[in-house]
Task: structure prediction
Amino acid sequence: MKFKGGYNVQIKGKPSNKTTRLPDPDLLYLPLFSKRFTFSAFCIHDGDKVVQGQILAEDPDNHSVPLLAPRAGTAKIDPETNHIVLENIQASQEAPKVEFELPDAAKGMGETGEKRCRLLKLGVWQFFSDAFSGDLPDPFGSPQAVIVSAAHLEPFLTSFEALLSEGTAGFEKGLEQLHSLSQAQKFYVILPKIKSNITNKVRDSAKKISGITLIEVPNKYPFDNAKLLARLLQLNPDKGSVWTTTTEGVLAVESALTSSKPAISRVISIAGPAVKSPEHIECIIGYPIDKIVEPYLETPLARIINGGVLTGDTVSGDQKGLDIECAGLTLVPEQAKREILAFAHLGFTKHAYSNTFLSLLRPPFKERYTTGVRGEHRPCICCTFCEEVCPSSLMPHLLHKYTEKNRLAEAERFGLNLCVQCGLCSTVCTSKIEIKQILLEGQEKLLQEI
Amino acid sequence: MKFLLDLFDKFRPEFEGKKGRLKTFKPLFEVIEFAIFYPSDQVKHSPHVRDPLDLKRYMGVVLLAMAPCIISSVIFFGPYVLAMILVSYAVGGIAEVAFAIIRKGEVHEGFFVTGMIFPLILPPTTPLWMVGVGILFGVVFGKEIFGGTGRNPFNPALVARIFVTVAFPAAMTTQLKVPFSDAITSASPMALFKTQGVMTGYQELLMGQTAGSMGEIFHLGIILGGIFLMITKVSNWRIPVSYLGSVLLLSWIGHNVFLDAVAPPLFQLLAGGLLFGAMFMATDPVTCPYTRIGKYIFGILCGFLTVLIRGFSGYVEGVMFSIVIMNAFTPLLDHIILMVKYKQVQVKA
Ligand code: SF4
Ligand code: SF4
Result:
């Protein structure tokens, strides 16, 4: 495979592999929404007492992906804030074995159908997505391939080293289980080319299982991107879905299938330039975000991002608790001050894609980025930096011009649909153009047209 | 600095909104304000962090790369050079601001490079009014009528230079000076070669001790500045390399075939405006192709035209014409390359 473009933004605040377990809070706020899901079909009534692992609500548009109760307690549905608030929380107990009825789609599949159903009902299926569309794949479908992207390369999502710090046995078993239940012809494990104990172990695990192809990618963002990998692996979108998941998904598969554990807690990173000592935390879904963030916050004015610094979304005031899809909280100081004569700074502390700052002469370092746009919006000057970093070998400068002029047919011809939304083009743009956003809107318009 | 910021805050209402008494001059106010204090805008969409390089720095780096040319001109020809630069900035600046006011837009940084390049490619004796007329023409007809920075097909400084060459040919070719001397001459190295077959020494050429446009003669400085620009990634190495490479190759062939009509390769490289053109003008990202292959073709054809005009036309120098001609072909070049490239992709997808 030939990789082009890509770029590692040298940003301060990488989380250590240490994982701190957060004690249970008094109240849990379970958001009825997340990036892909809306849990609109309630399975309980307001004020019901619920048990740990019980299904509270489902997303009817997404194969009934469930929202589980992370602990036993009293559930209050709060339609105004779009949360289920869990009160009178009880300490973690062994979750009672959930009995479920097999859906029709699973019935003819025998044991595999039962296992897949278990993944769905225990909240593990949400760790999967379709490589091409990014949507939730059909749990009872037949994927043409499975891609397990073991490591996140975007700063700063949960690191697989932290997830596997206690050993890779679970991962190996999970891989085996997933391999057998997916029944896919092609099964890939993607690993960045780095030398570390854990990578070596993961490499060995993947090599041990027959039928699994190990693919090593450069240690550069965004070569872990499933859509990109699916294309580089020459998988055809017309030949069925491509399941993708991460190390977390594989571990959750193992927990669910081996010990029937529902996916109700997560290990996530808490990192970024506004974090005091970035690390990982283990906490349950619905954990109040302000409570998570408070002890880590270094600067009072910081943006809380649900996900990585390049693709995550700002946590809006409406979201009170950790949602089920969060793969890390990134905190970036908000730009507040106006820089004086910034264009004339020597730039020993600035990290640029170009070599226009004197930091070039320094040994490698990480910059304390803020959310500043850092310049004025200008017309594109065709510096082609965006093209150089684009992992999909596109010409973002060309695409954004066509898209902005609503000439979508041309944009499509020049590869608009191949954009994987990695955000690198917007990051490096000299003229501060929101290229990624423009392309995203263009892609959405194209979809509507179809 | 707080006091300065307060000052801007105090006067801003005068330039803003419907009620501001000076709202017409908002672009001017913004140029000054944003040059000193960067806006504190925060990004709205992901990615949440942005590269520190912006257009001001980008253009600043180009000016920095031209510093050897600027400084050497002042040393060689005295303070009059500064007056020329000043006039160029003043007249061009007024034109820029005027257009920004008419368009209710902003003044863009590209002008700071245009305003500097133009005087540098003039003879050191150019009357100040001529500098003013030239830059005015360049800004208006080379850039603004096309919609401003980023939309101009031609390099505005070159448009200005071609205008003065056509309008005032004598001033551009016969009123030259050798550094540190007041004698007026027309004997630039290129002219000497063309008319008398005399080749100026390489050391003199490198150190700029010849007659010519004031910023174009100190070739050692241009080489250093050009390399600096390529290292910073502000200029794309593909263009200077293919441009200079093709001049070297074609003039080597031409010199062997046509002997005296075509100067030998190294002389071609170090005499006249080639290095300055290849390093600072052909590389203008707005007016050169954005496709990679296009850049190579652009450079090679520039080289071809330069050797052709230098060797076989009535003009002694062909750099500016070659670049402007190729500027005109840039959109076509990119278009053809895109058509070829994306035909393949479509077949694959
Ligand atoms: S065009 Fe798309 S894939 Fe390319 S850099 Fe921009 S966001 Fe990434
Ligand atoms: S990085 Fe920005 S200015 Fe440069 S070519 Fe791309 S869109 Fe244009």
User: Anything to note?
Assistant: The radius of gyration of chain B is 22 Å. Residues A 389-392, 394, 396, 419-425, 435-436, 439 surround iron/sulfur cluster (ligand 1) (CB under 6 Å).
